[in-house]
Amino acid sequence: MAEVNTVARPYTKAAFEYAMDKGNLDQWSATLSLAAAAASDEKVASVLSNPALTNAQKADLMVGICEDADEAGKNFLKLLAGNKRLALLPEICEQFNRLKADQEMSLDIEVTTAFELLDSQQEKLAQALKTKLGRDVTLTSHIDKSILGGVVVRTDDLVIDGSVRARLAKLAEAMNS
């Protein structure tokens, strides 16, 4: 069976190209985020997987949840329901938001520190990452005392581990070899 991301890709591409042409990437992103959250909800997922419901009934459920969607967004949800692809909504949403971020040259970055960063430190880190990555960055900060100190920066496929815990682990490995 094909992987979820492979099956979701043509739907994502079609939705993204349509949203780009119409200039409403933000609206489509919001609609897909809401639909993906709904499809991921345990109760909604159990209704969507109910074989007693027709595809039209499942489509009506999703359209009702995403009532603020434009007509094209509602038609997209109906198309997914008709093709029995509503379960792909979380993957479609994720791929869509990646394409949107690439288009807008932006990047969401998760920063983990042992202690809370000052605003000036966050701004300095954001500026350094913007320069290094060539994109606008949005930082989300988390505190994890177990890293002891330093910082761990994560985004899609990039991890920069500058934590004290990682440095100690490298030192221990070097001493044991």
Automatic annotation (TrEMBL):
Per the record, the domain of life is Bacteria
Tell me what topology the record assigns in the membrane.
Peripheral membrane protein
Note the Gene3D superfamilies from the entry. Answer: N-terminal domain of the delta subunit of the F1F0-ATP synthase
Q: Which Pfam families match?
A: OSCP (PF00213)
Q: Does the keyword Transport apply?
A: yes
Q: Which UniProt keywords apply?
A: ATP synthesis, Cell membrane, CF(1), Hydrogen ion transport, Ion transport, Membrane, Transport
Report the locations given in the UniProt record: Cell membrane; Membrane
Give the protein's function.
Answer: This protein is part of the stalk that links CF(0) to CF(1). It either transmits conformational changes from CF(0) to CF(1) or is implicated in proton conduction.
Q: Which family does it belong to?
A: Belongs to the ATPase delta chain family.
Q: What is this protein called?
A: ATP synthase subunit delta
The taxonomy runs: Bacteria, Pseudomonadati, Pseudomonadota, Gammaproteobacteria, Oceanospirillales
- The gene behind this protein is atpH
